[in-house]
Amino acid sequence: SRMPSLAACYNLMDFEAVARRVMKKTAWAYYSSGADDEITMRENHAAFHKIWFRPRILVDVENIDMTTTMLGTKCSIPFYVTATALGKLGHPEGEVVLTKAAHAHNVVQMIPTLASCSFDEIVDAKQGDQVQWLQLYVNKDREITRKIVEHAEKRGCKGLFITVDAPQLGRREKDMRSKFSDAGSNVQSGGDNIDRSQGAARAISSFIDPALSWKDIPWFKSITKMPIVLKGVQCVEDVLRAVEAGCDGVVLSNHGGRQLETARSGIEVLAEVMPALRERGWEKRIEVYVDGGVRRATDILKALCLGAKGVGIGRPFLFAMSAYGLEGVDRAMQLLKDEMEMNMRLIGATRVEDLNPSLLDTRGLLNG
Ligand code: FNR
């Protein structure tokens, strides 16, 4: 069976289907897996289908402007490339492929702590005034973490995303079964006594500090001027606490369904978070992001209508990169832009500022 041509990929799911056929088994297992029975992973995308549009007609939609800002950075479209570890499992050049595509489309890239390329390689691949953020796994040795954060700020990173949903790595059985042996990685923080029998994820994550707590947030604020965003917040109480702790943002995320099984989808949590923020007049005090299962521009639009500042997208770009390299990621991003322009027209919104809850019917979510 011949590999389908790139032009035959018409949406983000198509890249996944090709990647599944052409990727090495261990790499596919690591990228595609979710925790346990993968219920949360499936629900992440399915939850978007519980929300319907209430489009407005007879709006002049000739000119569509989908630009926005995230953490003060102007972006061409309200999504960013979220952090995903071990880019070289899918492509020999690893994360810098994503850096190049992000530059071509003027979107932000979040650099993972557990990248295959070194942090400096990924920053060196940056062009012009391209913006990157750092995703941080907090080391038990805080001096290592301090050095990582200070170095990232010095190298121009514009946001610090502290992952808070992974005190222990989830149980991804596909990955465990595939007997990962070489992540092709440059991962520094794992130490030498790596137990590879538990899959790629567990092999590289033993340094992560399960004792990380709210008490550490002031310390992060004291060591960096980068905006601080908690990645992996999953309920309204913790969003309110993040505001009180002086965080600049949260990502409502369950780590792509790779951590706590039967955690709710980010979009569902968003529907509960925004009213609580508005009730307190706090919606301008914190930027709220969502990731997990975003595959269509309609998904992005639903998150923005509910009040998200932007969404993160993970696996689709990994699959596009693994199947077709830079050209694949470039096409995936272009498809999203084309979908976005059309769907903004069809719902009667010409600018991101026009997106609001009245454009949605959310009665299928929560209790309405
Ligand atoms: C991730 N994710 C992740 N998150 C994080 O904070 N640090 C990390 O190292 C990784 N690594 C990682 C690897 C792979 C292969 C995947 C698929 C995901 C989670 C990621 O940032 C994001 O939350 C999800 O990927 C979003 O869901 P989708 O877009 O993949 O459905």
> What do the pLDDT scores average to?
94
N- and C-termini, Cα separation? 47 Å
Low-confidence stretches: 188-193
Share of helix among residues?
25-40%
Largest sheet: 8 strands, parallel
Number of helices: 13
Strand tally, please?
12
Shape: globular
Secondary-structure element string: HHHEEEEHEHEHEHHHEHEHEHEHE
Range of strand content = 5-15%
The Rg value, from CA coordinates, equals 19 Å
Ligands bound to this protein structure: ligand FNR
Regarding quaternary structure, what we see is single chain
Helix and strand content put the structural class at alpha/beta
Strand order of the largest sheet: 4-11-10-9-8-7-6-5
Family: Belongs to the cytochrome b5 family.
Subcellular location: Mitochondrion intermembrane space
Subunit structure: Homotetramer.
Organism: Penicillium arizonense
